[in-house]
Amino acid sequence: MTLLIQQGRIIDGTDDRVADVYVEGETITRIADRIDPASVPDAEIIDASGKYVFPGFVDPHVHIHLPFMGTNAIDDHASATKAALVGGTTSLIEMICPGPDDEPKAAFDEWMALAQAGACCDFSFHLSVVRFDELAQAQLRELVEAGDVASFKVFLAYKGALDLPDEHLLSLMEMARELGVIITAHCENADAIDTMQKQLIAEGKTGPQWHEPSRPRSVEAGGVRHLCAFAQQTGAHVYIVHTSCEEAVEQANAARAMGVNVFVEAVAPHLVLDKSYAQRGDFEGAKYVMSPPLRDASEPPQLWQALAAGDMVSIGTDHAPFNFSGQKDMGRDAFTLIPNGIPGVQERVDLVHTFGVCAGRIDLATMVNACSVQPAKIFGMYPRKGAIAEGSDADLVVYDPTFTGTFSVADGLSQVDYCGYEGMERRGRAEVVMLRGHVVARSGAYVGGEGGGRSIPRSLTH
Ligand code: URP
Ligand code: ZN
Ligand code: ZN
User: Fold this and answer.
1) Does any domain span residue 235?
2) Number of structural domains, the chain?
3) Does the Cβ of 162 fall within 6 Å of ligand 1?
4) What is the CATH number of the domain that holds 34?
5) I need a labelling partner for 384 at 20 to 30 A (CA). Which of 57, 284, 348, 438 fits?
6) Distance between CA atoms of 217 and 387, rounded to whole angstroms?
7) What gap in Å lies between CA 207 and CA 369, rounded to an integer?
8) Could you tell me if residue 456 is inside a domain?
9) Whose CA is nearest to atom 3 of ligand 1?
10) In the chain, which residues have pLDDT < 50?
11) Distance 62 CA to ligand 3 centre (A)
């Protein structure tokens, strides 16, 4: 199987030029100003003139199998990965989130089996460390040494469920430094949030609009400072996930200035939405409960600026799909019982194009860097993923920047029953999506087969 993608504007984060791309099997084998179609007579021709050609997008922060807050996220690997592919995301990194009593190896095996059975796009994992006894330590080492795991995840939130006490966090970071594993971290403060939640509920403040006041910016910024202090002490490299506010970004900047290796992730909801959505009446606000929470409307412009300046380097989704009906509404009497999360694995690229590039907040190179190149580099997949280069996997997106429409749940391949961006203007669409040389999506429709996603080999780059 060969493909010739003709005369698209290739934008891969560093290069920006019109050229042809030739794909043999699963691999990009030639890039040239012009490739004579007569020289590759068997190739399927894809006309990309007037379109962008991007490297397949990499989502560094996705939840699919997620037992959480008394329920399970509603997608399975087939639905979430088809949604990803239709939106131009050809690789994703899923968070393995075991319970506090689960063994890391069993958790890894469980998530891997589910992904291998159902995933249609390529995938990898961040392994959440929620216990750190001797058995867990031994298994974590084995998983890294076997090449199965190259990034850990820690939670400084969700008291009693996922949070890791400081003594374990510090030891884990020492181990990570020794092994060359990067630590991804949800930075808040589980105890402070627990206290504030109890106070608000006792005062009768039970609606979704009270979620943000229960975990203010200072708590998130304090979490970043705390993690970075441990990173400074241990030398571990850290990646702050779903950073919602300038105050938290500033803490990371300050740590970086002191020599800490810290990367900061934005996620689509914090870039596009604000806390007024969580204040919507009729319990609609529950659709917008995530952690860290949506902030004041003054924050998204600052996050875009941080991306443009390079203070934030990647954009994920934090896709965490819980139905409004039957799941979010478990928290009608108390916002603390609303499963946290907003779906978006399908919408990410178009949101960034619409509200970032078309709005003049970031340029195309920054978009590609944040949504593909940097996640691939930071997590040891580059240049197999995140690159348009000879020898790279032929994960390619022919993108139509002139498409206009609106975001809607009706177009979603996720199983979730709402779209957080319903009715918002949409500019741009993945017209042809290729995963390792196979066309898997066209103009919003999934045209690939069942399964076929592969675990992505990763190097330890930290
Ligand atoms: O609200 C969120 N972000 N839900 C998913 C779990 C997490 O914290 O990433
Ligand atoms: Zn989180
Ligand atoms: Zn998450």
Assistant:
1) yes
2) 2
3) no
4) 2.30.40.10
5) 348
6) 35
7) 38
8) no
9) 291
10) none
11) 6
pLDDT at res. 59: 99
Angle at 229 between CA 225 and CA 234, to 5 degrees: 150
Read off the CATH number of the domain in which 183 is found.
3.20.20.140
Ligand 1 pocket member 126 (CB < 6 A)? no
43 and 176 housed in the same domain: no
161/131 Cα distance (integer angstroms):
11
pLDDT tens digits, one per residue of 337-373:
999 999 999 999 999 999 999 999 999 999 999 999 9
Most informative mutation of 59, 61, 63, 184 for ligand 1 (most atoms within 8 A of CB): 63
Q: Examine the domain organization and report whether 345 and 430 are in the same domain.
A: no
**86 with 30, same domain?**
no
- What atom of ligand 1 comes closest to residue 157's alpha carbon? 8
Q: What is the pLDDT of residue 14?
A: 87
Q: How many degrees, rounded to 5, is the angle at CA 288 between CA 286 and CA 293?
A: 115
Separation of alpha carbons 248 and 222, rounded Å: 8
Q: Is the CB of 65 under 6 A from ligand 1?
A: no
Q: What is the Å distance from ligand 1's center to 127 Cα?
A: 15
Q: How far is the CA of 336 from the centre of ligand 1 (A)?
A: 13
Q: Provide the pLDDT for residue 461.
A: 86
Identify the sign of the CA torsion 342, 343, 349, 353.
negative
Closest ligand 1 atom number to CA of residue 290: 1
pLDDT at 273: 98
Check whether residue 147 and residue 160 sit in a common domain: yes
